[in-house]
Amino acid sequence: MKNIDINIGDVCNNRCKFCMVEHDTRRMVDFEKIKFDIILAKKQGFESIGFLGGEFTLHPEIYKILHLCKLLKFKIVHIISNGRKFEDKKFLAKLIESGANRFSVSIHSHKSNIEDELTQVKGGFGEKIQGIKNLIFFYNKGLIRHPVSINLVINKINYLDLLKTLSYYHEMSVRDFRLNFMWIRGRAKKYKDLYLKYQDFIPQIDKIIASANSQGYNVAFDGIPPCLMHKNSLKYIGEYHDFNTDVIGYNNPQGIRQRFNWQKLRKNSLKTKHLKCKACNYNNSCEGVWKGYIKVFGWADFFKTSKLL
Ligand code: SF4
User: Fold this and answer.
1) What are phi and psi of 13, to 5 degrees?
2) Which residue, judged by its Cα, is nearest atom 5 of ligand 1?
3) d(CA 99, CA 208)
4) Ligand 1 center to residue 274 CA distance, Å?
5) Torsion (CA) 127, 128, 131, 137 in degrees, nearest 10
6) Strands (DSSP E) found in the chain
7) Ligand 1 atom having least distance to the Cα of 225
8) Distance 47 CA to ligand 1 centre (A)
9) Which of these, 110, 160, 280, 284, has the minimum number of CB atoms within 10 Å of its CB?
10) Average pLDDT for residues 260-276, to the nearest whole number?
């Protein structure tokens, strides 16, 4: 299925340390512009539409936006959110009634102090937990079509706790987890204490996969090239399963509308490969490595890690 994500601007109620937004313009995109792109996407045959930011739940016209997607009969209407505003059950009910049928929440720990430190919002953890409970409530009632999923940024502060984190949310009935290896870009560049080396994280991958299989939840990794995974773990690479996604956004200093294919942008511009990659069996299916990672740790370190396998 073809998916389109609309970025509604940089306005956010969190200050996540690993946020990769480069130009924090604090602008929200007008409803009329978003409406134009929703209608265009429908005409172009997209059946799945997602909203991200910034924080989409802060958009003043959120109900109108979702309602338009419902009217146009998109099969998937996806909200990608930090989840704090889902704490308000009435607000969430109205989002669902307006047309949202898939939800992904960003949360990065099962410990309130860690979560609040990473997102720089005191009390944010409690709001998110209540938000996830509310989402599960509506999902169990059959009012949300797709299982609730959690997006988590893997970093130096949380990586050793991930097994416990995933079990914690699985016990709350979350079954889908997307684990994104931290991308050193935008605000994230400032927080060196969060930088994590592949060689430190790689031993965790098989443990996490084993736990997912024994406990019965789904896990996918993002930002980890295939040469750093065991052969039988390659199916857990998130990028291999994603919908082909176009993104529309205005988050540049001039506020100019930009449209790009997310997979192509990652492969051709945001990630990089080494000359040695030409001889790699995965070269065709691999997007490469985040440029920010190579800039900080270098290729020598990277290839040292791939030899550990
Ligand atoms: S192409 Fe390069 S980065 Fe990708 S899997 Fe092969 S060696 Fe690793």
Assistant:
1) -100, 5
2) 227
3) 34
4) 8
5) -120
6) 2-7, 48-52, 76-81, 102-106, 149-154, 176-181, 218-222, 244-249, 258-261, 271-272, 289-290
7) 5
8) 32
9) 284
10) 96
- Find where tokens 């299982």 sit: 147
Alpha helices in 47-101 (DSSP H): 62-71, 89-98
Q: Which residues pair with 28 in a beta bridge?
A: 9
Q: What is the average pLDDT across 169-181?
A: 98
**Average pLDDT value for residue range 145-171:** 98
Say which residues have a Cβ less than 8 Å from residue 309's Cβ, sequence separation at least 6. Answer: 202, 227, 228, 229, 230
CA dist 190 and 16 (Å) reads 11
Residue 256's pLDDT is 92
Position 122 pLDDT exceeds 90: yes
Q: Which atom of ligand 1 is nearest to the CA of 283?
A: 1
Q: What is the pLDDT of residue 128?
A: 98
| Pocket lining: 227 vs ligand 1, CB cutoff 6 Å | yes
| Domain range summary for the chain, segments of one domain joined by + | 2-307
pLDDT attached to residue 308:
63
Its CATH class, for the domain covering 2-307, is: alpha beta
Number of Cβ within a 10 Å radius of residue 131: 26
Q: Are 262 and 246 in contact (CB under 8 A)?
A: yes
pLDDT at residue 97 in the model:
98
